[in-house]
# Entry
Amino acid sequence: MTLQGYTAPLSPDGRASLVPPPPWHYSGDFLIVEYRTNPDNVIALLPPELEPADDPGAVCAMFADWQSCSADFHELVDPIQSQYKEFMLIVGCKYQGQPASRCVYIWVDKDFSMYRGWIQGFPKKLGSIHLTRLFPVGQGTPRLEPGARFGATCAANDRQIARAVVTLREISKTGPTVNGPPMYNTRHFPAASGLHPTIFELVRAGGYDREVSDIWEGEAELRLYDDTLEDLQAIAPREIIKGFRFSFGYSVDGVTVLAQHNEEAER
# Structure
């Protein structure tokens, strides 16, 4: 009998795969802090195909509480397969002169999301992420109103990664801007032996059926911690721009490969 599946582990009926095939559908709540940092350190995180943004030091710190599913929606009635949270740092850039964005660091709390992210070029690691939840009733929740406060944290490998607080002021006229342009990430899979990767591609993340709620904005606080495997102090906040809170949904059916690195040409 032939083993089947979209991802490992393969099995006779294919159901054991950690990730089902696309399309993948996403709905989630976002807490974002936009800030500016040392532009040289942002530029150092860009691959050769991407150029600095007009505001080269701008960064988006994004916390997300997601629910996702595949084409048959079976995960929605087995929520442990659909719910996860993540924290990512996104920088602005340009691709062929046009505004672009790039996820440079990201942590997620479920293995299926980490694997799915690698397929799409997101450099995901496992972490522990928490966000203030919003409910329509009771006093155990903030409301979408001026003065409401939302918080979020991320930790990984017993280290604190980030902590944010956003205090709502009003409905935003612009929304966040750093993560708005198309996202260009890198799919990188090492070879089983040798130093040169088996897959090394620049890809543009796709997406369709996008929906967004009212976007609230306000004052924000953000701290990136220094005892991390990543040099987060290199892109730590120097100036807080603004915070945002909203809900967002979209669907994904793969990525577009824009460049494949040639091993021989780069030696």
About this structure: Residues 24-180+211-249 form a domain with the Acetoacetate decarboxylase-like fold (CATH 2.40.400.10).
